[in-house]
């Protein structure tokens, strides 16, 4: 926390560089507008984003640590060009860690960025990386079933048994396909209250199923139209097994609520329903990190919520600007870090109850 306080104090002086964790980081164009003013909210500058990352870093960094990243960069702000970055192309400062993971399609290792310290968060903001998406598994773990596993580089055989092949949460993407009416033809739904309300209802049904399996779950806004529901698990099962469990749960809910839920991959068949996506449970897929902003007007943030607070949440309610004054007292997603559950034990217990 001393680094955070020192950084925030330094930013008040609008310096040309800051020292973070013993590293000097050059800052340029602090007034550059990353998000223009929108719907009564002020413009969000590069300086505002650095402040956001610094202030939220005690909550963000534990969720990012040792997870390969997929990044979206807007060097000139969201009105300019967007660049997808999966593998680092810029010259990296010494404090930015990377990892190598074997690519089966290329038969060679790929390099990925990690965000393991405050200095990296500041550098990402300086370089215009506005969206930070993280994998569902880590390249190394200190406990659970993936402890002591080999790195995921060098060969397909090593990758198969590497920690990064064992997710530490089960993910459900709750994506409403109710349209606001202002979308251009072929575009995905824009945020709207009716769609978000239906998504919240589906998320609650999902929670009830997970509760019935004795599995704790957490929820956050996606920063767009939908919600992410995650179940923290001990990383003992590979992605294909975890995805199979998610698929069974989603299709069960689809059968129970066919008028409101779909698992159809074709977007044309989702209209008017909530798309419950289990296909995100794949190595290499990622979701927007908790507390990270989106490259959308207003700078909405993917906000972790306590389940009791979901009922009053609204789409795009949480932004960089609102979080500057509206702080939650604790991290509702802390269970994802320190309360892993055995998915194998939950499934065995459920099967035993069904046989009884």
CATH homologous superfamily label of the largest domain: DNA primase, PRIM domain
Structural class: alpha+beta
CATH architecture of the largest domain: Alpha-Beta Complex
The level-1 CATH class of the largest domain: Alpha Beta
Stated plainly, the CATH topology of the largest domain is called DNA primase, PRIM domain
Q: Span between N and C termini?
A: 52 Å
- Elements, N to C (H/E): HEEEEHEEEEHEHEHEEHEEEEHHH
Number of domains: 2
Number of strands: 16
In the predicted model, the low-confidence regions spanning at least 5 consecutive residues are none
- Cα-atom radius of gyration: 20 Å
Give the spatial strand order of the biggest sheet.
13-14-10-12-11-16
Number of helices: 9
Averaged pLDDT: 92
- Which band does the percent of strand residues land in? 15-25%
What characteristic shape results from the CA principal axes?
globular
What percent of residues adopt helix (DSSP H or I)?
25-40%
Keywords:
single chain, 356 residues, alpha+beta, 4-stranded antiparallel beta sheet, 9 helices
């Amino acid at each position: 926390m001393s680094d955070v306080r020192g950084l925030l104090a330094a930013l008040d002086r609008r310096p040309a560089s800051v020292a973070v964790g013993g590293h000097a980081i050059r800052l340029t164009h602090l007034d550059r507008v990353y998000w223009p003013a929108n719907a009564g909210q002020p413009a969000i500058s590069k300086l505002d984003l650095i402040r956001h990352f610094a202030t939220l870093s005690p909550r963000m960094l534990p969720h990012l640590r040792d997870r390969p990243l997929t990044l979206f960069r807007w060097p000139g702000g969201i009105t300019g060009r967007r660049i997808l970055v999966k593998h680092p192309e810029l010259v990296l400062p010494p404090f930015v860690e990377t990892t190598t993971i074997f690519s089966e399609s290329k038969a060679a290792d790929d390099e990925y960025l990690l965000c393991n310290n405050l200095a990296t968060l500041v550098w990402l903001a300086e370089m215009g990386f506005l969206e930070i998406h993280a994998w569902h598994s880590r390249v190394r773990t200190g406990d659970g079933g993936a402890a002591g596993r080999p790195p995921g580089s060098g060969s397909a055989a090593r990758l198969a048994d590497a920690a990064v092949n064992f997710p530490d949460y089960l993910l459900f993407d709750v994506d409403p396909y109710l349209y606001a009416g202002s979308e251009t033809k072929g575009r995905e739904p824009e945020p709207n209250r009716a769609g978000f309300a239906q998504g919240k209802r589906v998320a609650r049904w999902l929670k009830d199923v997970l509760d019935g399996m004795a599995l704790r779950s957490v929820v956050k806004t996606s920063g767009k139209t939908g919600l992410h529901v995650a179940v923290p698990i001990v990383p003992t099962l590979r992605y294909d097994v975890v995805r199979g469990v998610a698929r069974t749960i989603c299709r069960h809910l689809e059968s129970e609520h066919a008028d409101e839920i779909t698992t159809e991959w074709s977007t044309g068949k989702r209209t008017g329903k909530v798309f419950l996506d289990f296909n995100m449970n794949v190595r290499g897929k990622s979701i927007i990190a908790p507390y990270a902003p989106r490259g959308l007007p207003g700078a909405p943030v993917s906000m972790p919520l306590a389940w009791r607070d979901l009922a009053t949440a609204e789409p795009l309610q949480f932004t960089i600007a609102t979080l500057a004054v509206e702080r939650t007292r604790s991290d509702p997603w802390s269970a994802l870090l320190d309360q892993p559950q055995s998915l194998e034990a939950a499934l065995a217990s459920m099967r035993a109850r069904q046989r009884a």
